[in-house]
From TrEMBL:
It comes from the Bacteria. Keywords: Glutamine amidotransferase. Gene3D superfamilies: Glutamine Phosphoribosylpyrophosphate, subunit 1, domain 1 (3.60.20.10). PROSITE patterns: GATASE_TYPE_2 (PS51278). The keyword Metal-binding does not apply. InterPro entries: EgtC-like, Gamma-glu_amide_hydrolase, GATase_2_dom, Ntn_hydrolases_N. This is Class II glutamine amidotransferase. Residues 2-243 form the Glutamine amidotransferase type-2 domain. SUPFAM superfamilies: N-terminal nucleophile aminohydrolases (Ntn hydrolases).
Length: 283
């Protein structure tokens, strides 16, 4: 599987989050504690927004994150208030740049940990549901990217939670029709440049790990000696596949079958349930 991190809040150098913590994402690429694989070396990617544009920049490569000089160069010189980082462990599709996360379409950015079980058996059925206007923009061969384009097809721009729920419902319905009992395993992060949504769900009810950070003001009260907490705003939050360190009280497990939204003015956590699409599909 994979490991990922989503950061939103005070603009910081990417390296402060990707490299510096005790159990950073780079450390997890070699020493994951909660993933299916200990090593996640089948590529990496970072994506970030700046104040000058609503379209995120993306850097992706097929090599391991732990020794990539381009990643180090970018991370120590790019500052952002909303960025994603992802390290990949392939579930069967090719190790190639177009299969590395995060994926981008317009202002939207997407990354995934998990898999569609039996993907090779009903991939064609899912592909044929993608909006024909979107289909030419699919670059790779992963289930993760196809999930993104299904969500775009089902209205991600207007209703992200609903679009992801309809995407999940289609995968489960199609998988069951092909005798796959538990078709979907996912933790997903999606952003539009202002908000971040994070989803944790699996058909079996045993989803991959996912955590969110405690509010900064509460952490400052618990750990006034921690310099990083003095440098960031109360709005700063992280969502991670596994905690970046052992700071007491810093991390909270995202509940099974739920999603959260991090947004200006207040975050929210909701139950998540797949939905069947009840409107017309693209021609």
């Amino acid at each position: 599987m994979c490991r990922w991190i989503a950061y939103t809040g005070t603009p910081v150098f990417l390296s402060r989050v990707l490299f510096e913590p005790e159990h950073s994402l780079i450390d997890q690429s070699l020493h994951s504690r909660m993933g299916v694989e200990t090593t996640n070396g089948d590529g990496f990617g970072v994506g970030w927004y700046t104040q000058d544009t609503t379209t995120p920049a993306v850097l992706r490569d097929v090599g391991p994150a732990w020794n990539n000089r381009n990643l180090q160069e970018v991370a120590h010189h790019v500052r952002s208030g909303l960025f994603f980082g992802h390290i990949r462990a392939s579930t069967g599709t090719a190790v190639q740049q177009t299969n590395c996360h995060p994926f981008r379409h317009g202002r939207w950015m997407w990354m995934h940990n998990g898999m569609i079980s039996g993907f090779h058996r009903f991939r064609r059925d899912l592909v044929l549901t993608v909006d024909p206007a979107l289909y030419p923009d699919i670059e790779g061969s992963t289930d993760s990217e196809l999930m993104f384009f299904l969500a775009l097809t089902f209205g991600l721009a207007e209703d992200p939670p609903g679009a992801v729920a309809r995407m999940a419902g289609l995968i489960e319905k199609t998988g069951h029709a092909h005798d796959v009992p538990y078709p979907l395993q996912m933790t997903i992060a999606v952003a539009d440049g202002e908000r971040v949504w994070a989803f944790r769900y699996s058909s079996e009810g045993r989803s991959r790990s996912l955590y969110y950070s405690t509010k900064v003001d509460a952490l400052r009260a618990l750990h006034p000696e921690t310099s990083f907490l003095r440098d960031i705003s109360d709005e700063t939050r992280l969502v991670v596949s596994e905690p970046l360190g052992a700071l007491p009280g810093a991390w909270n497990e995202v509940p099974e079958s739920s999603y959260g939204v991090i947004q200006p003015g207040g975050d929210a956590l909701h139950a998540f349930r797949p939905q069947l699409h009840d409107g017309p599909l693209p021609a």
